[in-house]
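As agreed, record minuted below.
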Amino acid sequence: MEPGSDLYACAQIVERGDPERFAAAMASPVSARAVLFPLYAFNVEVSRAPWVTQEPMIARMRLQWWHDALEEIAAGGFVRRHEVVTPLAQALAGVDPAPLMAAIDAREADLDRAPFADEAALLDYLEKTSGGIAVVALIALGAPRERASAALPIARGAALARYLQAVPELEARGKLPLPDGRPEALAQLARRQLDDMPRGLRAQRRSLGAAGPALREFALARPLLEVVARDPAVVAEGRLQLSEFQRRWRLLLG
């Protein structure tokens, strides 16, 4: 990545806003980074949009801006010049960005400070946001659509782990993040997601060949959810994390 390039700018956005995905992308082949960094930078920018202003209308305008940019990419004609949109258009050449549009629409839920109606609504939000990024990344790197869709359970589990890590911050911002925050409910939620997630992430990554790096970002999902299943109090207390060594080792090995 050349300093000053769009791809370099995307990498910087991800490094600042999503260190785990940054580490996962940096552990991937250079060819995969040209897809992963624009997608992950897009995710950082869209996830940030509902929180950079107290005005819901302005936040919706920011989300609509990204939606419009994806429509331009989908149309295959003129695409606005932007440090993330431009390389994203190159990464998505021939790829349907509809899952990314659904991810933007799902972010509307962040404008509502009330909790999700129930567990199903929370999981749907997580699948559409994190899952949409994962599916598009896999397809853009050459995975068949069926194999890409099969990654949704682990994408949802990884998104849940990240979301539970963010609970104290969300609460500090006035959001009621969980439909049921009781420790026993969180433990059950974590166990159900663990049951749904396939094992052998590294073997799956290898079986996908050039698309495999898109799965590397999920390396922390299972160990983090296992912590919640054992000790759900870590969520409210802001202790849901692995050691720095464990985090780096798992992201490196994928």
